[in-house]
Amino acid sequence: MGVYFNPRNESYQRARNSRIFIDKTGLIEYLNQRLSTEENCIALSHARRFGKSHAAGMIDAYYSRGCDSSKLFDDTKIAESADYRKYMNQYNVIHLDISSFWDFYKDNIVEKIVEYIYKDFKKSFGDELDYQDNISYVLMKIYQKTNNPFVIIIDEWDCVIRNSNDKELVHKYLQFLHSLFKSEESKSFLALAYITGILPIKKIQDESALNNFREYTMLDSYPITEYYGFTEGEVRTLCREYDMDFESTKAWYNGYLIDDVHMYNPNSVSMAMDRHKFDSYWKNTSSFASINTFITMNYAGLKDDVMTMLAGGKVRVNTNTFQNDFFTVASKDDALTALIHLGYLGYDADRKSTFIPNYEVATAFEAALQTGEWKEIAKAISTCDELLDETIDGNADRVAELVELAHETYTSVLNYNDENSLSCVLTMAYFTAPAYYDIIREHPAGKGYADFIFRPRDNAGWRPAMVVELKYNQSADTAIRQIKEKRYQGALSGYGDKILLVGINYDTDGKDQKHHTCVIEEWME
């Protein structure tokens, strides 16, 4: 029983004691089926705060001989499995968090990992083992002594790969992993390997330390997708329990489409439920500098693609060229793929396209744009709150000015110059509105399709519903007239509070040096 060898179950005990606990023990049944088979090496690469460490704590609590975890699992889903008791607390477990070693021992990390593991072994076996031997040999000797095979859990396994370009250090680290997972000795002592990281396994020439692992990533984690992040059903249940609006929760934290399953950021959902407030909690727990690193790379089409996604669109991406590290990003596709693995973009495998998954991540992009060559765009985005307020207050002239600023800023990137393009500009101009509204473009309404419906969610407070119609080389009055004649406000049927009709026209003639005009009226039956 030690820190790294046969740890106790405190980590999972804290999870069980938490106010918000989602039962993910079905993962254990999946792992039990792979114990001591040729499919016993599992590599999970998911974004930060997506439950990887939670799962690692659950796994060592279940398998470790250093504790009795029956009270933690008897009322969970895994207890329904026929093999539940057969495997529980029956294995020698080694559990490492590589990032904690990297913080202090960058130059001699492998030696320090082995040193600390051996310290734990000495507590259990004293001088019965020769601690000068290779670690794989020592593990084999322990297996022979105890007749208990090993479950080896490594959290943040890719920390060295992500943070070091020192080939000698990386080679030494991979040789260490080889001794644990692919040495001749490991064939006898290894029952299960479970490693987690952010990046998929990098294929390094002449290195085979991890080529026997089955990978589960942000691109494809079937059939264990549901065990990381929160599913839509789980989030609905939490919203009922904590009296939180599900649609608002969905807008803020949904969007990760993995194997056709909509996954939610579990850390952010839990924080929102606990604080009873929607906010960008994820960006407060990890650095968002990497967004700016990748979106400002000077690759043809990258800036256009980022702008398209900020405006609510999807862009095609080839994820196959990415080399699974941050040192060899060589194209637009590599930059976008890196952001997918980091969790800053979602991925639609069916369409092979990427997108900004939710409002929380959109705010992270907004923060990243405050520097460098994006300052002009960041300035336009910074007016979004003002634009929404001025629209609600009925200040049509100021709305026209702010829309014009947005149009001038974004057309310099995407060359918008028609009514459809104006819709994209409006999406950007009202960039912060999704915090309060369900915004629907081209919504069937009355006798046609309304360009925009702004339907307030429960957290919208005093903000009214809005119908926005766009015109090109016509007039804002024409837009208002069309809303009324075609009864687009019918899309808000059943909504009992204030409804605003907003007409915006873009005039390429630029009469009176103004391209945009706006009319705002309150709907009266």
Describe this structure in words.
This protein is α/β, with parallel strands linked by helices and 525 residues long. The chain folds into four domains: 10-226, Rossmann fold, CATH 3.40.50; 229-284, no CATH class; 289-368, no CATH class; 376-522, 3-Layer(aba) Sandwich (Trna Endonuclease, Chain: A, domain 1). Helix content is 41%, strand content 16%. It is built from 23 helices and 16 strands. The chain has helices at residues 10-17, 26-32, 52-63, 70-73, 84-87, 98-102, 109-125, 135-146, 159-163, 167-181, 186-189, 232-242, 246-253, 266-275, 289-295, 302-310, 332-342, 359-368, 375-381, 384-392, 396-414, 419-429, 476-485; strands at residues 41-45, 92-97, 150-155, 190-197, 214-216, 230-231, 256-258, 261-264, 315-316, 346-348, 353-355, 437-445, 448-456, 465-472, 499-506, 516-522. Strands 2-3-4-1-5 form a five-stranded parallel sheet. α19 packs antiparallel against α21 (396-414) and α20 (384-392) runs antiparallel to α21 (396-414). It is elongated and about 90 Å long. The mean pLDDT is 91.
How many domains is the backbone divided into?
4
Main structural class: alpha/beta
How much of the polypeptide forms β-strand, as a percent range?
A: 15-25%
CATH architectural group of the largest domain: 3-Layer(aba) Sandwich
What is CATH's topology name of the largest domain? Rossmann fold
CATH top level of the largest domain is: Alpha Beta
- Enumerate the spans where pLDDT stays under 50 for 5 or more consecutive residues: none
What overall form do the CA principal axes indicate?
Answer: elongated
Report the C-alpha radius of gyration, rounded.
27 Å
Strand segment count: 16
Query: What is the count of helical runs?
Result: 23
Mean pLDDT: 91
Oligomer: single chain
Sketch the major β-sheet. Answer: 5 strands, parallel
How helix-rich are the residues, as a percent range? 40-55%
| Euclidean distance between termini CA atoms | 74 Å
| Strand arrangement, major sheet | 2-3-4-1-5
